[in-house]
Amino acid sequence: MTTDQEYEEFAVARTPQLYRSAWLLCGDRHGAEDLVQETLAKVFVKWKRIDNPAAYAQTTLVRTFLSQRRRKSNHELPYADLPDQVGSDPAAASDLRIVLQDVLAGLAPLDRAVLVLRYSDDLSVEDVARRLGLSPGAVKNRSMRALERARERTPR
Fold first, then answer.
1. 39: how many CB neighbours lie within 10 A of its CB?
2. Quick one: pLDDT at residue 85?
3. Which among 71, 45, 69, 70 has a CA at the least distance from the CA of 57?
């Protein structure tokens, strides 16, 4: 099997999980799709030198998200003329997803990343710390404070 075939199999297998994390981080389908695409492109460039592709892809996804949020040019403005009809987004149909999206959108990007990695991707404090370049204590502290803010934002 060639390296390209191995990468393609990896990308097909990991895209759903990467998309789920990206959607939770970005809060919208289009942003999540763009983030996954950019992540997979970065993974492809380093594919031959990666020991743990799944971990590398997840770390790349989160770091790319955080990097995009730091850029000042990241804020796109919508075009003035909108289409007559809007397509439905199946992911937005669930009330729970809408509430989760609103709660996560109200958090700082790094707090959002910590919560997604800890509770959606079920990573340990040490793994989250390693992927985000933080100390385990900082991850615990951010988790605690981000959960507190998230609970304050959750409708009762």
1. 27
2. 62
3. 45
Domains of the chain: 3-71+92-153 (1.20.140.160)
Which residues lie closer than 8 Å to 23 by C-beta, 6 or more apart?
29, 32, 91
pTM more than 0.70? no
Summarize the confidence of residues 127-152 as an average pLDDT.
Answer: 94
- The rounded Cα 79 to chain-centroid distance in angstroms is 26
Structure tokens at 42: 């970065």
Residue with the bigger pLDDT between 154 and 43: it is: 43
Number of H helices, E strands in the chain: 7, 0
Q: What are phi and psi of 88, to 5 degrees?
A: -80, 145
Q: Which long-range contacts (CB under 8 A, 24 or more apart) does 52-61 make?
A: 53/10, 53/14, 54/14, 55/127, 55/131, 57/14, 57/18, 58/18, 58/21, 58/117, 58/121, 58/131, 59/131, 61/18, 61/21, 61/22, 61/25, 61/35, 61/36
Q: What is the mean pLDDT of residues 116-132?
A: 92
Is the CB of residue 101 less than 8 Å from the CB of residue 27? yes
